[in-house]
Design goal:
There is one protein chain. This protein has about 220 residues and is an all-beta fold. The protein has one domain. Helices cover about 0% and strands about 50% of the residues. The radius of gyration is 18 Å and the shape is elongated.
């Protein structure tokens, strides 16, 4: 699993209705009992033209997220390569992930083992570029965004997952950015794409049919 970056630009023009575009990743293979996260929530207005840049950097990572009112934020974590495992430990209230070690027989998955003495929350995330227009940070800055979340991971339990960056898009105002999505989304998927198959830079047009009210997200540079 090589490291790579995907820069996506969404073009929006006079949609005729307010709402929000919600981007989230498909659950990792083997990720039982977890929940997806609203990775990006992009509000849009009824009128006007604007562009929204989003950057994804493929660096799978396990982290121990902080959760407040079902909104996750990342804290300590570690990057892994396929067929590696890390152990989460705790000492006097300080949490730490061990240096990842190669594990045979796990089929390219990455693993996290809870070696604390208590139930823990664990997330899988990616290092992600920050869009200056939305965050106020420089566009070259990096952060970690949780893409999938497990709660109630028992002491001695192991999370195993194969993350494939299949990004899905929905139109709904039901979620805030970084919200845990605990129930199936009631709205249809308007677009999905394996980001690994895209070139480094891609642009998409987000539009709405005024007759039917249906939304579409179409790549401009096919």
């Amino acid at each position: 699993m090589s490291d790579y970056t995907r820069n996506l630009t969404f073009h929006v023009n006079d949609l005729g209705s307010e709402g929000a575009l919600v981007l989230l990743f498909e659950a990792p293979y083997g990720a039982e009992g977890g929940f997806p996260i609203a990775w990006k929530v992009i509000p849009f207005q009824a009128g006007g033209y604007y562009e929204v840049p989003v950057t994804y950097n493929n660096k799978p990572r396990f982290g121990r997220p902080q959760v407040a009112q079902d909104i996750v934020s990342d804290a300590v974590g570690v990057n892994l390569n396929p067929n590696e495992r890390t152990d989460l430990t705790e000492n006097n209230g300080l949490f730490q992930f061990s240096v990842p070690q190669f594990v045979s027989g796990i089929g390219g998955a990455i693993q996290c083992r809870n070696l604390t003495n208590a139930v823990q929350e664990i997330g899988i995330d990616s290092c992600t570029g920050i869009d200056q227009s939305f965050s106020g940070f420089d566009s070259g800055s990096w952060t970690s965004n949780i893409t999938f979340y497990w709660d109630g991971v028992g002491s001695g339990s192991t999370i195993s997952a194969q993350f494939k960056p299949v990004l899905k898009a929905y139109v709904t105002t039901d979620y805030k950015q970084n919200a845990i999505i605990r129930r199936p989304i009631e709205f249809p998927v308007i677009w999905q794409q394996d980001l690994s198959t895209l070139p480094t830079n891609s642009s998409f047009t987000f539009s709405r049919d005024p007759g039917t009210g249906d939304y579409t997200l179409v790549r401009d540079d096919n």
